[in-house]
Amino acid sequence: MTKIDRLEEWYHTVWLRGDLRAIGNFFPPDATETGLMPGHSLRPADFAELVPMLMRLVTEPSFRIVRHFEAGDWLWALVHIKARSARDLKPIDLTSQVAVRFQDNKFIEAYNHVDMLGFFGQIGALPAEVMALCLMGEQLG
Asked: Do the strands 106-114 and 32-34 form a parallel or antiparallel pair, or are they unpaired?
């Protein structure tokens, strides 16, 4: 199985099907992920809490690997994510980038950047124009 196939399997199995028991098939227990929660590193067990929290906010989730690049133990991928807001069924359209280091077909290190500001704006948890408001110096809250 190629690295990109393994990453796609991760998204299908854990994120789309919600098989949280499978997390250990992708990450050894001491692996780390950085970037999903700024300022915090996540361990594999943390995904068992994070995935359901995020997925309850959406319906009809899907993803597509737009570009990827492999170099040695590393895989970089640009991911296009689509879904609908669970609140009002409005479309959600955002991108994510991930860099993953592999060992024995598992992710031992992962760095993610997801457009969470865009995500929370699109589901109605933040003003849709939050980026423009912040750039103009507005304070939220």
From this structure: parallel
Residue that the structure tokens 């597509």 belong to: 64
The predicted pLDDT at position 111 comes to: 94
Residues 95-119: b if buried by 16+ CB within 10 A, e if exposed: ebbbbbbbeeebbebbbbebbbebb
**What's the rounded Cα separation, in Å, for the pair 68 and 86?**
30
pLDDT tens readout for residues 60-96: 999 999 999 999 999 999 999 999 999 999 999 999 9
Read off the pTM: 0.89
- Tokens representing 122? 């699109």
Direct distance between the N- and C-terminal alpha carbons of the chain, in angstroms, rounded to an integer? 47
